[in-house]
Design goal:
Blueprint lengths: L3 H20 L2 E6 L5 H13 L2 E4 L3 H10 L13 E5 L4 H12 L4 E7 L2 E4 H8 L4 H32 L1
Antiparallel strand pairs: 1-3, 1-4, 2-3, 4-5
Helix pairs in contact: 1-3, 4-5
């Protein structure tokens, strides 16, 4: 029989994974085999700068945690995987995608984004969406553009009237 202390540690880890998943807008599972310690440290820093974190857990414990939340990612829990937990839905995906472009050893496998399981293609699609600041800028421009165009039209009209 397994040691009671070890069982308690495993239960704590399963609860930690489940709680982090519940508290995160995004969880991304990715392969990192082949990255150096320096590269992983750099990736951790980039994720931390975007209000996300990188963790490595045993697949069996992660599977138990995801099963407790009714999240089915079992087919992706084979081999060494790392987990990126983020409070923003898009930021960790963008960081991982940008990092993967420079480091071919990083491969995003599956994600859990806002309550839905998303495959690798879906993650790549989400990585192309502008970040929060970019979306705010686009929204502001969209709201200002009609007034800007009206102001230009009125200015041209006033110059036309004044010129006659």
């Amino acid at each position: 029989m397994a040691n009671e202390k070890i069982l308690n540690l495993k239960k704590e880890t399963v609860n930690e994974i489940a709680n982090k998943t519940k508290d995160s807008a995004t969880v991304v599972l990715f392969e990192y085999h082949g990255l150096s310690v320096a590269q992983l440290t750099d990736l951790r820093k980039k994720l931390r700068d975007n209000d996300a974190e990188l963790k490595v857990y045993k697949n069996t414990l992660a599977k138990l945690a995801f099963e407790s939340l009714d999240i089915n990612v079992d087919e992706h829990l084979n081999g060494p995987k790392a987990f990126a937990f983020g409070k923003d839905a898009i930021a960790p995906i963008k960081v991982l995608s940008d990092f993967a472009k420079k480091n071919k050893a990083l491969v995003m496998k599956v994600g859990y984004v806002d309550g839905s399981v998303v495959d690798a293609n879906g993650l790549q699609h989400l990585a192309t969406i502008p970040g929060r600041d970019g979306l705010y800028t686009m929204l502001a421009y969209g709201m200002i553009a009609p007034f800007k165009n009206l102001a230009i039209a009125l200015d041209l009209y006033s110059k036309e009237i004044g010129g006659k």
